[in-house]
Write a structure and sequence with these properties.
The chain has helices at residues 39-46, 68-71, 90-100, 105-118, 134-145, 164-179, 191-194, 214-219, 233-240, 266-276, 290-307, and strands at residues 2-10, 13-22, 28-32, 54-59, 62-64, 75-78, 152-156, 183-188, 199-204, 207-212, 225-230, 246-252, 255-260, 281-285. It is of the alpha/beta class. It folds into 2 domains: 2-213, Rossmann fold (3-Layer(aba) Sandwich), CATH 3.40.50; 223-287, Alpha-Beta Plaits (2-Layer Sandwich). 36% of the residues lie in helices and 27% in strands. The protein has 11 helices and 14 strands. Residues 1-230 form the ABC transporter domain. This is ABC transporter ATP-binding protein. Belongs to the ABC transporter superfamily.
C-alpha cells in the first residue's frame, strides 16, 4: 500500500494534510493518535470508502478510488462499533457476510464452521450475537471481516471498548493473520497496542508527525527522557515546567517522567533549579517510551505551525 500527498478537506476543515504512507505486505502497521487526528478519515480513503481531495493512492496494485470496487474483493474492514446483527445468530451473521462476499453455499458453510472453531465459538453457532460480551463481539466481527480471506485488513480502533485480556487475545489473532500473509492496518490510541506493531505512524490534527518502527522511534529520543524523584511530586512538576528545555513532566506514582527538547544538560538544569528552590530531587536517565515519542512529535509539529512553516 502506498499513498502520496494524501489530503481530505470538509468545507474549511482540513482533516488530513499531505500524508505519505508506505505499508509492506504482511506488516501490522499502526496508526496512533487522539480522536480527531485523522486516523479514521485516512483509513476510509485508503480502502476506497471516501474520495480524497488530493493525492495518489495505490493499494494491492490498484488505483484508488478509481478501482475501489475491485479492491473491495480483496480487503476486510472492521469498525470500533459492533456492526453485525444483534438479533441474528453467530452462524447467520457469518453466513450473511459470506454471501455478501459471493462465497458459494458450500464454501460459506465450510468457512463459517472453520471460523466458529478458530475464534472460540465452537458449539455456540445458534447463540444470538446480541448476547455476547464486548470482547466476544469484537472477535466475531473480526471473524466476519476475514470470511473471504482478504489480502489486506483495515481495523479502525477495534479494541476501544473491550477489557485488557480481550484486547490481548484479539492481538494474538491479528498476528496469526499477519503470519499467514495478511497485511493489517490498525488504528489505536493505546500505547501498549502501538508497541506491538511492526511499523507505526503517528497522526496529529491531520498531519503525519512520525513514522517508523517502535524501536527506531523510541531510539531517536535516547538521552532526552529523565526520571525525577521528589518528595512533593505536584510541586516538583510545577517547578520542572519552568526549567528551560523541559517539554513535559508527567507524574507516574511518586516520580515524574520528564521529556527534554534535546540531548544536553537538561538534567543539570533540573538539578540546579531544585537546589535553588531548596527542594531535594533525584534525577536519572530513563528509557524512552512511545508516549514520549508521541509528546515529542506533536510538540515539534505545534512549534512548526507556530513558526508558520510547512509540515
Amino acid at each position: 500500500m502506498r499513498a502520496r500527498n494524501l489530503s481530505k478537506t470538509f468545507g474549511r476543515l482540513r482533516a488530513v494534510a499531505d500524508v505519505d504512507l508506505t505499508v509492506a505486505r504482511g506488516q501490522v502497521y499502526g496508526f496512533l493518535g487522539p480522536n480527531g487526528s485523522g486516523k479514521s478519515t485516512t483509513i476510509r480513503m485508503l480502502c476506497g470508502l471516501l474520495t480524497p481531495s488530493d493525492g495518489d493512492i495505490q493499494v494491492l496494485g490498484l488505483r484508488i478510488p478509481e478501482q475501489a470496487e475491485k479492491l473491495r474483493q480483496h480487503i476486510g474492514y472492521m469498525t470500533q462499533h459492533f456492526s453485525l446483527f444483534t438479533d441474528l445468530t453467530l452462524w447467520e451473521n457469518l453466513q450473511f457476510l459470506a454471501a455478501v462476499q459471493n462465497l458459494s453455499r458450500r464454501q460459506a458453510s465450510l468457512r463459517v464452521k472453520e471460523l466458529l472453531q478458530e475464534y472460540g465459538f465452537a458449539g455456540r453457532a445458534s447463540q444470538l450475537a446480541g448476547t455476547l460480551s464486548g470482547g466476544q463481539k469484537q472477535r466475531l466481527a473480526l471473524a466476519g471481516s476475514i470470511v473471504h480471506k482478504p489480502d489486506l485488513l483495515f481495523l479502525d480502533e477495534p479494541t476501544s471498548a473491550v477489557d485488557p485480556e480481550s484486547r490481548r487475545d484479539f492481538w494474538e489473532k491479528l498476528f496469526e493473520l499477519a503470519d499467514a500473509g495478511t497485511t493489517i492496518l490498525v488504528s489505536s490510541h493505546y500505547m501498549d497496542e502501538a508497541e506491538r506493531c511492526h511499523r507505526l505512524a503517528i497522526l496529529d490534527r491531520g498531519h503525519l508527525v512520525a513514522d517508523g518502527t517502535p524501536a527506531d522511534l523510541t531510539g531517536a529520543l535516547r538521552g532526552r527522557t529523565l526520571e525525577v524523584s521528589a518528595e512533593r511530586p505536584r510541586q516538583a512538576k510545577q517547578l520542572l515546567m519552568q526549567v528551560s528545555g523541559v517539554i513535559s513532566a508527567a507524574q507516574i506514582g511518586n516520580s515524574l517522567r520528564v521529556l527534554c527538547d534535546e540531548v544536553g544538560d537538561c538534567a543539570g538544569r533540573i538539578e540546579r533549579a531544585f537546589a535553588a528552590a531548596g527542594m531535594s530531587a533525584e534525577v536519572s536517565a530513563t528509557t524512552p517510551s512511545l508516549e514520549d515519542v508521541f509528546v515529542a512529535a506533536t510538540n515539534e509539529h505545534k512549534a512548526v505551525e507556530l513558526r508558520g512553516e510547512s509540515v
